[in-house]
Amino acid sequence: MAEEKEKKEPPRLTQKELDAVIRSHESYTVGRKGGIRANFSYHDLSGLSFIGKNLSDANFTGARLFETDFSDAKLDRAILFCTDMRNAILRDTSLLSADLRGASLRGADMTGATMTGVDLREGSLASASADGTLKTAHENLTAVDKGGANLSGANLTDAKMSGAVAVGSNFSDAIMKSTKIKQADLQNANFSGANMENADLTGCNLTNVNLKGAVLIGTAINLSEVSAENRRGILTVLPIGPSAHDLSLPIEELLKLHETWVDSNGQQGQQLDLSGYDMRTNGSLNDVCLTMMKGKGAIMFGLSFIGAKLQKADLREADLRQTNMKGADLRGINLSGARLNGASLHGARLEPLVLARGIMFVANLSKACLRHVNFAGANLSGANLAGADLGDADLRGANLRGADLTDVNLDGARLDPEQQKMLTPAKK
Fold it and tell me: Is pLDDT above 70 for 329?
């Protein structure tokens, strides 16, 4: 009988019971009378839904959250110490300064999560059994269960992960500026395309870590354990190829010449050609005229093109990751094979460019890498997206009518119900 008591299952809530607790907690968060802070310590909440709810400051210590859905929820400052969060869904979840020490996140989907100041260090939790001995929380977890989380595209700025076990975890395209991951076990982890500016990875186990295309400016990291193949395409403070300093004239003068060239239909001025140049130091190209510019293979990581005119620009195979093209005019642009991971094209115009006499140029994004791109409210009608990777992209509110979606990857993409209906035949 004593053995049966030891194996007693943790308290289990129904979704209806959970919703009542959440309502009370949300009243607590706004100071409403009768509100009570949620305490889910040691409860089994597996598979339940917290979608869009505010659980800031809630206590989940030792809770079982296997396959629980926290999409779009607020878990700011929540205590998630030693929780079992395997396969949990935390897409676009806010986890500001949350305590995730000792939490098992293997297989968890944290795509787009905001984790500024989060604590993912090691932690242990034990409880007394009936005979007084100590049992480790979630003793069914193995060493392999620690780590393996999917933090692809997540915001981990200033996150604290020192001592974390993140074996095999996916940090691809994540924003990890000033993240502290000292003495962590990161073997087999994927950091491809991650922005790790000023991050501290001192003393980490980097065996077989993938750092392809990662940004390592001011990063404290020992690359001696990382193979040349896994370091391919890394961006450091050193330019890749010619930089803005190697241009024939200062970029400001070249932009004026280009605008004159556009306004005169090529009769005066000079067409802007940045093909192959590393332009990262340029910073902002907001509201400038870049119509019909050339920039094949250019490195423009992190630049701002807000409201810029890029009609019929040639940016094939360019590195445009984490650029801001909000509201930009991209009609007829050629982005074939370009990388725009994590870029914002919110409200951008990508419909065909129609000239006199019915001449039309379609925006070409074929085979482009568009993972985690924000296309919300963008006009992609008629665009060529054949073979593009739109994994985890936000397409809500985007106009996709007439777009070529042949062989497009939409795994994890966020779509409106109407878009889902429209795209169902294409998936088949």
Answer: yes
Domain 1-10+42-238 identical in fold to domain 239-428:
yes
Q: Give the residue with greater pLDDT, 5 vs 251.
A: 251
394 has which bridge partners? 374, 414
Which amino acid does the sequence have at 324?
A: N
d(CA 415, CA 264): 42
Predicted structure pTM score: 0.82
Q: Which two tokens stand for residue 91?
A: 């897409």
* Domain 1-10+42-238: top CATH class: mainly beta
Class of CATH domain 239-428 = mainly beta
Token pair, residue 139, equals 């003793």
Alpha-carbon distance of 329 to 353, in angstroms, equals 10
Instruction: Give the tens place of pLDDT for each residue, 353-396.
Output: 999 888 999 999 999 999 999 999 999 999 999 999 999 899 99
- Backbone φ and ψ for 12, nearest 5 degrees, come out as -120, 130
- Cα-Cα-Cα-Cα dihedral sign, residues 265, 267, 269, 273: positive
CB 41 within 8 A of CB 22: no
Q: Alpha-carbon distance 280 to 270, whole Å?
A: 22
Q: What is the pLDDT of residue 138?
A: 58
Amino acid identity of 313? A
Report whether 85 contacts 67 (CB < 8 A): no
pLDDT in tens, 82-137: 899 888 999 889 999 999 888 888 778 888 898 888 888 767 665 544 444 434 55
DSSP labels, 8-29: PPPPB--HHHHHHHHHHHHHHH
Boundaries of every domain in the chain: 1-10+42-238, 239-428
- H helices, E strands: number in the chain: 4, 4
DSSP codes, 43-108: -B-TT-B-TT-B-TT-B-TT-B-TT-B-TT-B-TT-B-TT-B-TT-B-TT-B-TT-B-TT-B-TT-
pLDDT of residue 168: 84
For residue 62 the two structure tokens come to 């030792």
